[in-house]
Amino acid sequence: MKRLALTLVGLLLAVSISLAAPGKDAGKTYLGSIGDSMCGAKHMMPGESDKDCTLGCIKEGSKYILIDPSGKIYQLSDQKTPGQFAGAKVKVTGTLSGDTIAVTSIVAAN
User: Domain coordinates of the chain in residue numbers?
Assistant: First the structure.
């Protein structure tokens, strides 16, 4: 009986610690600009603003991405919210898995 009680206490402790410890990138904020997966860091529509180029490529089937200042590209799980920030500098908060950010929020950057 004592062994069962100690096993249960140990199991509960292990589970509570694993649930309390956030992942390495949980809630991290990433800075960059909203672009599209077709053009990436360089917009290819001559004469178009970054916003117009991004929105045009999205209409053609591209996906919204985040481009950080070094040129690194992140895929975004949320494909609706970035539309209001197309071509603009933003702060994206979320969890990184591979090259995709599971977005929890997007706000304009100053």
Answer: 24-108
The owner of tokens 């069962």 is 4
Instruction: Calculate mean pLDDT across residues 58-78.
Output: 96
Query: Which pLDDT score is estimated for 25?
Result: 45
Rounded to whole angstroms, how far apart are CA atoms 99 and 94?
A: 12
Work out the burial of residue 23: count CB atoms within 10 Å of its CB; fewer than 13 is exposed, 13-18 middle, 19 or more buried.
exposed
Q: pTM of the prediction?
A: 0.74
The CATH number of 24-108 is 2.40.50
7 vs 103, residue with greater confidence: 103
> What digits encode the pLDDT tens for the residues 82-100?
999 999 999 999 999 999 9
Q: Which residue has the tokens 């995709």?
A: 100
